[in-house]
Amino acid sequence: MPVTPPTAAIAPESATTALYRAAIGPVNTAHYLALFARFNDAGRAGPAWNGAAGFLTLNWLVFRQLWIAALGYVACAEGLSLLVLGVGRRLLQWPAAVEWGVLGALLVLSIAIPGAYGNAWLHAETRRRITRAVREARTVREACAALERQASTPRRLWGLVVINGVLVVALIGGYVAWSVVLAGRGAAVGSINTPPPAPRPAPQVATAAVPAAVSTTEPEIKPVPVPAAAPAPVAGPAKEASPVSPSAAPAMQRMPQAAPAPQPVLAPASTAAAAPPVAPPSAGFAINVGLFADPANAGKAHARLIEAGLPAFTQTVTMAKGPRVRVRVGPFATGPEAEAAAERVRALRLEAQVFPLP
């Protein structure tokens, strides 16, 4: 009767697998072991998508201690951003749409390249660590222990989470503070854009309150002609002594009487001694920087003046060829102040023309 062979003991993992396990660390070990085994079978590390390496590139590189790749990533990101925002904006004068398109393409590349080749970078770095540990250790167990001390741990992962949280809070605080500063600058610019109040007109003396100069020659008053009374008929002595009949009394009362001559009304003569109108005081001086057809260029010039500490403001002017944006600086109380500010404007390589305000 055949004897049933005992259950075969589970074969221990190979030394290569043990070294890879120790070098990878306890985070996502099974995933990377299978991936690295496939790379070793193929004889090369090809592209394979890694979401953490793509969307959290810098954090993933720091967590996996890929320092050279992290420095290269930061250098490329900053260098390309400076080229687009510095050279492209200053020299090439790209439109806003082109600039945003280039920045979007750089963002896509900054996600796609690390996401596709991050696993290959980690595989190459892991092989270098294993080779160095095997050379320095006498046994495989000592090499594994040395690799485990260098491997990424959950403690490192939580440390990165805390650091990212602190950075997010700092960014939010900085954004709020910057918003407050911008709001204050906007209020200051708004007060500058408000036209100064019109100067009060000189007080006019009421005509009725000032006695007009009366002419020394009185106007000639023409006498009103009085109608001559009809001559009374000559009667005898007896009739003259007779009293007036009652019927004749009302008739005599109804006789028109001479109306009194109307008093001439002297019109108030315009006085030559009236005080001349006082000219309103000058509202000050301002600096004309330029008239821009493109609001974006006007905004850039306005921003440069504000950053230089100059009280700049903008005005929209409607012209035959369309609206234009005028950029000015001011107002200033005196001409020397305006000239000094104009020199500061010219130092920014902008035009400056001082003019008095109406």
Automatic annotation (TrEMBL):
| An MF annotation (GO) of this entry | peptidoglycan binding
Q: Where is the composition biased (Low complexity)?
A: 232-258
Highest rank taxon of the organism: Bacteria
Q: Where is this region: Disordered?
A: 232-263
Q: Which residues cross the membrane?
A: 66-88, 100-122, 157-178
The alphabetized UniProt keywords are: Membrane, Transmembrane, Transmembrane helix
Q: Does the keyword Nuclease apply?
A: no
Q: Which Gene3D superfamilies match?
A: Sporulation related repeat
Domain (SPOR): give its ranges: 279-358
Q: What is this protein called?
A: SPOR domain-containing protein
Its taxonomic path starts at: Bacteria, Pseudomonadati, Pseudomonadota, Betaproteobacteria, Burkholderiales
